[in-house]
Amino acid sequence: MSEPNRERALQRPLGALLGLRRSAARSLWRTQREVVGQKEGVAPVEVLAPPTRSSTVFLTKQVFLWLWNYLKVVFTPRLRFRRYTAPQNPRPGVYPLSDACTIALAADWGTGTSSAYRVGDAIRALQPDVTVHLGDVYYSGTEQEYRDYFVGPGEWPRGKRATYALNGNHEMYSGGRGYFRVGLPALGQETSYFCLENAHWRIVGLDTGYYAKSFPFLELIISFIRLHRVNRRWLKDVVFADPTDQRPAILLSHHQWFSAFDSEYRRVGSGLAPYLDRVLLWFWGHEHRFAGYAPFGFNGKRVRARCIGHGGMPIELGGKVKRPDRALVFTDERQAGDVDGQKIGFCGFAMLRLDGPDLRVEYYDENRTKLLEERWRTGPAGATGSVAVGDRLKVYQPLDSLVS
Length: 404
Description:
- With about 400 residues, the protein is α/β, with parallel strands linked by helices.
- It has a single domain (about 95-404), classed as Metallo-dependent phosphatases (Purple Acid Phosphatase, chain A, domain 2, 4-Layer Sandwich), CATH 3.60.21.10.
- It has helices at about 25-40, 45, 55-75, 115-125, 145-150, 170, 175-185, 230-240, 265-270, and strands at about 95, 100-105, 130-135, 160-165, 195, 200-205, 250-255, 280-285, 290-295, 305-310, 330, 335-340, 340-345, 350-355, 360-365, 370-380, 380-390, 395.
- It has a nine-stranded mixed β-sheet, with no helix packed on it. A seven-stranded mixed β-sheet has the order 4-3-2-14-15-16-17. The chain has a two-stranded antiparallel ribbon with strand order 12-13.
- It is globular, with a radius of gyration of 21 Å.
- The two termini are about 40 Å apart.
């Protein structure tokens, strides 16, 4: 496979990202140690190993530097939440889509690993009209990490017509500086939320990451994840202002509303409750796996969810189903390799193919193997769907329940 024009020296080994937990402190620690390693010519995976130098050197070159950078980030306010600034536009943030077009989706992609680059190459080979990254550039979404692992030549694949990126929790561990100062300007994207629409479909990108930055270590105890009031107001006044608009909506976000395996962010769903009856599919990342759910939700609201957080992080296999009542239909449990004794799964992405009232959703792994396909058709009576492929997946209930 021919490689795009990128600096391979910046590629991170999978082992450098194993065990990365959701914590600003831990993420910034890895960022700082990688910076130290680059200055000293040490590979990323080696700089994470137990130090062999004197404790004084270790403290001054790593711990104290990390503490200084961490305190600077923690006690610096997050960057201002951006809103659309064209008051003469009655529908700001709504962009047209062709009735026939393709849209590639991947989440948690910005890792710089070989798996992430294979996903990016696979997306490029399909030449989508639009690409959307659902958030997370690692370790901490710093400006340099965005330049190295997201916006540089050969990094995140650009769509032929447009490219978008959502905000995630790792972006906000650095106060959003990489995302807002580097990522959005490089893509020509005005804000962290948007709507793409044609005569039959609406695709709505949300910012669930903005409140991921909080006081030190408090994010490990209390979840502040929710939609910003500006984002909620835009949904009410612009996207869903017309109650007679029957076009199905497809939601894109970084964080999940519910999960059979991991954390749940109920406030995200509650902020969207008035509109969920108009949502056909909801794609999210954050949780590093590929999984699909039958209609499920809370307080009388249900959605069909697809977790595609397997874009670039090492997929650490072996997680157990903690909530069997969450209508889990499938996961991808195939083993791609072994890193330091940890079984690793396959990364991948989703491709949306819109053709008038028809929608085809194809799910591929990093080797371009098609794992699943959904077909939807919208009409006066609503949308109807069917499912194909799926024999490589671990199935918990019939695949047809995905489209029920």
